[in-house]
Amino acid sequence: MSAVPAATLEHLLAEAVTASQRAYCPHSDFPVGAALLTAEGAVVHGCNVENISYGLTNCAERSALFAAVSQGLLPRSFTAMAIHAPGVPLISPCGACRQVLLELMAPDATIVCSGSEPGRTRTWTLAELLPGAFEDF
């Protein structure tokens, strides 16, 4: 299914665990970390950053993507992302993140997720995560 080697996805998941430890989540105590793989093989971290006004909170997935773009990396060139949340058995991206992932990542990008259950992961393509998405590119 994934064009990204299993060893690379495992490394990316470990990076997402590290990113989750940097989350700022004093209101929910629900840390999430993301690790974005660039076409060149670099990894960009993101974590959720909460605000007492929850609508101003930014998810880990979007934090990683926005950080990469702000560093000058080209949208649609990211090949994979790992997402980790230690507070649930298995995490998946929210609807808003799914739409942003689709727009900013490569169309065939791989998304791999994990949670508190050791060894349990789930892997999707962007098309599987968001069928019928808004697309204008």
Automatic annotation (TrEMBL):
InterPro entries: APOBEC/CMP_deaminase_Zn-bd (IPR016192), CMP_dCMP_dom (IPR002125), Cyt/Deoxycyt_deaminase (IPR050202), Cyt_deam_tetra (IPR006262), Cytidine_deaminase-like (IPR016193)
Keyword Metal-binding: yes
Enzyme class: hydrolase
Top-level taxon of the source organism: Bacteria
GO terms, molecular function: cytidine deaminase activity
Domain CMP/dCMP-type deaminase: 7-137
Enzyme Commission code: 3.5.4.5
Keyword Metal-binding annotated: yes
Record's catalysed reaction(s): 2'-deoxycytidine + H2O + H(+) = 2'-deoxyuridine + NH4(+); cytidine + H2O + H(+) = uridine + NH4(+)
Keyword entries, A-Z: Hydrolase, Metal-binding, Zinc
Signal peptide limits: none
Cofactor(s) this protein requires: Zn(2+)
The family this protein is said to belong to: Belongs to the cytidine and deoxycytidylate deaminase family.
Its job: This enzyme scavenges exogenous and endogenous cytidine and 2'-deoxycytidine for UMP synthesis.
Name this polypeptide is given: Cytidine deaminase
Species this chain originates from: Pseudomonas benzopyrenica
